[in-house]
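Chapter summary example.
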Amino acid sequence: MFVTTFGQKGGVAKTCTSIHLAAHWANAGRSVVLVDADRNRSATAYASRGLLPFAVVPMEAAAKATRHADIVVTDGQASSNEEELKNLVEGSDFIVLPTTAQSRSIELTVEMACMLNKFDIPYAALIVKADARKKSSIQVARDVLQGFDIEVLRSEIPLLNAFENAETQGVTVDRAVTKNGRSDQRRMTGFFAYSQACDEIELSMPQRKVIPMPIGWNVSRLEDRCA
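The structure predicted for these 227 residues follows.
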């Protein structure tokens, strides 16, 4: 399974989303590789301490590193370049568009969705940095996106200081600690939200067609067959 996070601007938790989607599946026992396709190498910097439960590799090393992976998460470039988008789309099964509830972020997500509609690829928006004190603006953002026929995941990623602490410490949010060295009280809220998003993504994935084996074909190994 190939999942890509993509956006047209920085500050929409694109790398944070990539990291935590990969972490959920890795913690579930899946073989996961995160491909850092962003020129800023944000995911590589995040993983530099070696504390994440999965490998992070640059785009140049992706072919070999992902050979035996169950799931490949790509942290895409923050760009509106249609050629870059086309290249990422061709290597994806599903695209996640992280977006905040701010109007400019919503506008850019709609523009991105319009470009994605040219390709036969499932995608969905994910509302991030959701401030619990601004539920009405979050609902407005959700309504606007859905008004443009954009699927919006039900999960919302809360606005938490724990995410900033986690990035500084090079860990996922469920392992974040405060400046005093104590476990951040709301850390699990953030990780659980991403876990729910992962479940939704898997449910939204198109089912692969199973091609029945023609009757009479022997598919056993040659060395196991009788002479």
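To summarize the output: The chain is about 40% helix and 20% strand.
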